[in-house]
Design a protein that fits this description.
The complex is a heterodimer. By secondary structure, chain A is mostly helical. Chain A contains 5 helices and no strands. By secondary structure, chain B is of the alpha/beta class. Chain B has 11 helices and 13 strands. At the A-B interface, helix 2, helix 3 and helix 4 of A face helix 1 of B.
């Protein structure tokens, strides 16, 4: 697995401190919640709502860090810091990149749980 | 050591964060409750007691900064320890949290070992603070305790407009000699209970008790709209309560007691005097001296309640008074007009 997608040490520590079973449940919650945050980013962009955009990016960054999804966290952090400027209205490439990275992170996380 | 189980309120708009923090808190042996935004958290804090708040900053509806501001302004909640858990960018935001009274700041994702240490330290601080508050409550009036909490302790006074009351039991020395010490203590306890009740029900504060005498303040430490009227109303109630008490005493074949009350109104310097180690809340100034002289003069005048001109003037005829002329008091360059509150029968 590509180590830049998920930092296994971070997830191992989560399992150790919170319990494997709880870590798996928490991951499920993240996989459920994250698509909502991604959708919120698109909506906030479309509605030009800087505050909601920043908050959604912030939330995604925070959760990505919890599971060791380092690259996803870095992309989300960039959106949080730059705000709507990161995504000019006709060019949503940054959002697409984020969504792709989430798909990779989600797959890697599921692998971790089964493996 | 107090009960190590604390009630912790976790407020975070993000479900993953909420669940993880809650798990950490529970694994440390504490109980946790969850809120999704600042507004809900404040409602819960005002409804039920918590020992600690774990607060996120970025939240819809009401963010963490606003929660900190509201807590700071809330008399009941201002001492609740708050640990901010956030992944905020920028040192200035952390500084802002601490400035708004947060106990500590933990960056997310929160390290469970650090969290445990911070929770332990915060709870210990809260325990000490609660203990201190309890001590202040026991040894000071609630008004002084509140004043101390709001403005902190500092020696030195401020000028306030207030009415000062002195009261004592007439012929107390003879009374003490005629009965057992136990009876005297019991009498004093009943007497003080009645007097405190009358004084505090009119917004006054008893700030000194010496033997059978007491000094009370109306208008300090907290301002009172009608301090003179309140002081006189309290004095009348005190006289009335003593009458009732005497009925009980005479039924028990005991000697009746009589009290004398002096009230003066004006500017006083109120504040804490003493040393940093031991201090008392008191008032000083001419008004205080005059009230003491008036109380002593009740013996001479044969009246139960004597007041000065400023008190009489502030009453605006709501209470019947009788002018007794000008009396030359010790320490006063000119004679002072004094008035008897007429509702009270001659002592």
């Amino acid at each position: 697995m590509d180590e830049s997608v998920i930092d296994k040490a971070v997830y191992a520590e989560l399992q150790e401190t919170a319990g494997s079973e709880f870590a798996a449940e928490l991951m499920d919650t993240f996989l459920e919640e994250a698509p909502r945050m991604l959708a919120e980013l698109r909506n906030a962009r479309a509605e030009n709502h800087a505050e909601r955009f920043r908050r959604a990016a912030h939330s995604l960054k925070s959760n990505s860090n919890t599971f060791g999804a380092a690259k996803l966290a870095a992309l989300a952090r960039e959106l949080e810091l730059k705000g709507l400027d990161a995504v000019p209205s006709r060019d949503t490439a940054a959002l697409t990149a984020l969504e792709n990275e989430f798909a990779r992170a989600a797959a890697a996380l599921k692998d971790l749980r089964h493996g | 050591m107090a009960d190590p189980t604390a009630r912790v309120l976790i407020v975070d708009d993000n479900k993953v964060n909420r669940l993880l923090l809650s798990r950490n808190v529970q694994m440390q042996g504490h109980r946790s409750e969850l809120a999704e935004n600042g507004r809900t958290a404040l409602e819960m804090l005002r409804r039920e007691p918590f020992d600690l708040l774990l607060l996120d900053i970025e939240m819809p509806e009401m963010d963490g900064f606003a929660v900190l501001e509201q807590l700071k302004a809330d008399q009941q909640l201002r001492d609740l320890p708050v640990i901010v858990t956030s992944s905020l960018e920028g040192l200035d935001n952390i500084v802002r949290c601490i400035g708004l009274g947060a106990e500590d700041y933990l960056h997310k994702p929160v390290n469970p070992v650090l969290l445990k240490a911070r929770i332990g330290a915060s709870l210990e601080k809260k325990r000490l603070r609660d203990q201190q508050k309890e001590l202040v409550r026991r040894f000071a009036t609630s008004e002084v305790a509140e004043d101390l909490q709001q403005s902190g302790f500092s020696l030195g006074g401020k000028r306030v407009h207030a009415s000062v009351m002195f009261s004592d039991i007439r012929g107390f020395t003879a009374l003490v000699e005629s009965q057992s010490p136990e009876e005297t203590i019991e009498l004093l306890n009943t007497y003080y209970t009645l007097m405190f009740d009358a004084i505090s029900s009119h917004g006054g504060v008893v700030n000194q008790m010496i033997g059978d005498g007491l000094m009370a303040l109306f208008g300090a430490p907290l301002p009172l709209d009608d301090c003179a009227g309140s002081a006189v109303a309290a004095a009348l109630e005190m006289a009335e309560l003593i009458e009732q008490f005497n009925l009980e005493r005479s039924a028990a074949q005991k000697q009746a007691i009589r009290i004398g009350i002096g009230i003066a109104t004006g500017e006083v310097v109120a504040g804490y005097t003493g040393t940093q180690q031991r201090a008392t809340y008191t008032c000083i100034g001419d008004t205080v001296n005059l009230a003491a002289r008036l109380e002593a003069h009740t013996k001479v005048a044969g009246r139960r309640i004597l007041i000065d001109k400023d008190t009489q003037h502030a009453l605006k005829d709501r209470v019947r008074t009788e002018a007794l002329g000008a009396v030359p008091f010790k320490g006063k360059t000119t004679a002072v007009d004094i008035f008897a509150v007429a509702a009270a029968s001659p002592a």
